[in-house]
Task: structure prediction
Amino acid sequence: MFDRRWLLGRGIAAAAVVMASWRAAAAASTKFEFTLADKEWRKRLSPEQYAVLRESATERPGTSALLKEKRRGDFVCAGCDLPLFSSSTRFESGTGWPSFWAPLAKAVDKERDTSQGMERIAVNCHRCGGHLGHVFDDGPPPTGLRYCINGLALQFVPTK
Result:
């Protein structure tokens, strides 16, 4: 009944819950320009957006409607409406998530993320602390960076 696969699966699930709780506690103790009580975040966001922005979940690849967005405009935080990325920095990475080679100035913060058994750099909204995704060093020029962002963490605002 209890084999290694079962124990490993339960261990990973428990670690994910602990990491989400730690992140939520850390975010609650950090002062952001835009803050809401947990109850208000749950009213403002869909359950899927809440899981991504407030609990550091990741949406399934290829599911974001923003993957097909080709208009000019800005991608803003779904939590607080802060403009995060310009469509001029968007590129097709083939990963299944919206990707950008640079954020707008003072739009995102980065932090070390050791969840999932690897070391990555998490990207968070500067205004509300919402988890957006991760940044990797395999992007195109001019930065060589790939900001791999959950579409659920974004809303698109076209240029008028």
Observations:
- The first helix runs from residue 4 to 29.
- Residues 4-158 form a domain with the Metal Binding Protein, Guanine Nucleotide Exchange Factor; Chain A fold (CATH 2.170.150.20).
